[in-house]
Design brief:
Length: about 450
């Protein structure tokens, strides 16, 4: 068993400790399959509603991955009393683990913690939903009727799921045989559908919109394949991946590896197929053929996993903060808003042209901290985000292809091995180490992505 004691007061060395621990743990896992634990010694924040103070130097909108990490970083920079985070949810979820929850490899309760426990101690938690942003007057308005003004605004509102854009959903989830790892309410339905699979088509969809973690729609497919093999039902199943995209994955190196896997596992892939309707009472899914407008096909299913259409947060609409497609319009290198110099963005809500992941949030957070520091000093931002993002493509209950790449779709791999090969160590990274890195590194503002370690691992060559 490998133990790592993390003391939050010594944050400067913690990132290094965590990464070192991660690497030590991998080695240990390799050697003897031991269990890894981290014990953390942090103060727990006590939450509250809005106080009479209605102005903060920095207001962070959204208390998800990006909002909490920026709250922690800004607290260290300017003091907790000058920072507020506006977030309505009582619970904070580590969404990447839902892939494993949908496949029965983790339980849902392991993915959530009270928001009060992740808000950086002393930072104001405004437990409300922002309803309106007025960047011309440096003000936001919440659903509890409060008006909060700011000097600097960090927008970290994530994205919105649109199950309702598929005819027959969300009410179709009341029927069995259908699930979706993308929401708290439906992720366990995936596992139920998988366990109850008898015979027929197991269908996995990918929508015709940007999505978060573009690998997740097929990760659950590989896990389902593995589960059906394990339970002796695979010969009775047709596994079908119907994706709106013209490719299996956006980066060629990893797409090539995935094509080999789907071929060897006898999985049917239909490109440019977009789910438009679910007739859950009849177990039918209707897909439009994006290359033949007006044409659609009906697939019967024994199990259906839905990845919903997704879009920008509605509150950005009409705020003059959004781009033509509704996403927060930021500079792709500095993360500063293209129109309002005191507004910044991070994570899924932005129009950064990279894959939307928590790994991307980590890399963005250190750049954004630097950008804000410079802007506060009236200097020019000087650190550039290269689009780093990562997707641990789970290919079975013990293997992962760890995709890491930049804005240009160029692999940006941390480890000095070919990461397009299925790896057991990378599975343990995904299932056991990354959650710890998330809760104790990223959310504390201590993990800015693996960039420095990549350099180290490649002897300064990358
Ligand atoms: C099934 C699944 C698998 C994934 N797998 C991976 C993976 O393997 N690796 C990886 O790196 N990433 C993965 N991700 C993606 C990752 O979880 C997201 O990219 C990441 O959480 C984005 O952070 P964010 O802060 O932008 O958004 P979020 O973490 O979603 O946070 C947005 C926050 O804004 C709040 N909010 C929304 N509207 C308002 C409002 N009006 N007012 C105030 N607050 C508001 C929300 O309540 C939420 O807390 C996965 C996601 C899913 C669903």
């Amino acid at each position: 068993m490998v133990g790592v004691n993390v003391n939050c007061n010594r944050y400067i060395s913690v990132t290094t400790q965590i990464m070192a621990a991660a690497l030590t743990s991998q080695a240990a896992l390799l050697r003897r399959g031991s269990r890894v634990f981290f014990s953390v010694n942090c103060h727990v924040h006590s939450s509250g509603g809005v106080t009479s103070k209605e102005h903060y130097k920095i207001v962070v909108l959204g208390g998800g991955s990006g909002g909490i990490t920026m709250g922690a970083r800004m607290k260290r920079k300017i003091g907790a009393e000058n920072v507020a985070i506006v977030e309505p949810s009582e619970m904070h979820y580590y969404q990447p683990i839902w892939t494993l929850v949908g496949a029965g490899a983790k339980i849902i309760t392991s993915s959530g913690r009270p928001t009060a426990s992740v808000i950086p101690p002393g930072v104001k938690w405004v437990k409300s939903r922002v309803m309106n942003i007025d960047p011309k007057n440096n003000t936001v308005f919440t659903d509890s009727g409060h008006k909060i003004s700011y000097d600097y605004l960090i927008v970290a509102l994530g994205l919105q799921l649109h199950y309702e854009k598929i005819k027959g959903l969300p009410e179709g989830f009341e029927h069995p045989k259908i699930g979706s790892n993308y929401s708290l309410q439906t992720v366990e339905k995936t596992w139920t559908a998988l366990q109850n699979f008898k015979e027929g088509n197991a269908i996995f969809s990918f929508p015709n919109t940007p999505v978060k973690c573009a690998g997740a729609p097929q990760k659950i497919m590989y896990l389902s394949d593995a589960f059906l093999r394990k339970t002796g039902k695979r010969s009775k199943a047709n596994i079908i991946y119907n994706t709106s995209l013209p490719v299996l994955f956006g980066v060629k190196k990893y797409a090539d590896a995935l094509w080999e896997i789907v071929k060897s596992r006898h999985i049917d892939v239909n490109l440019r197929h977009n789910l438009i309707e679910v007739r859950a009472d009849r177990r039918e899914a209707v897909f439009e053929d994006l290359d033949r407008p007006g044409e659609s096909k009906v697939f019967e299913y024994e199990m259906l996993h839905v990845t919903p259409p997704m879009g920008p947060p509605a509150v950005l609409k009409g705020s003059s903060l959004e781009d033509h497609a509704g996403w927060l319009d930021v500079n792709k290198h500095t993360l500063q808003h293209n129109k309002y110099a005191n507004v910044f963005g991070i994570g899924d809500c932005t129009n950064l042209p990279t894959s939307k992941t928590a790994a991307a949030v980590a890399a963005q957070s250190s750049v954004l901290q630097r950008t804000i520091t410079k802007v506060m000093k009236k200097d020019k931002p000087d650190k550039e985000y290269d689009g780093y993002t990562s997707c641990p493509l789970v290919t079975s209950y013990n293997t992962v292809i760890l995709a890491e790449f930049d804005y240009n779709g160029q692999p940006l791999e941390t480890f000095p091995v070919d990461q397009s090969k299925e790896s057991r160590i990378m599975y343990h990274m995904k299932a056991d180490i990354m959650p710890h890195l998330y809760w104790h590194g990223l959310l504390k503002g201590l993990w800015g992505g693996p960039g420095p370690y990549r350099k180290l691992m490649h002897l300064g060559m990358k």
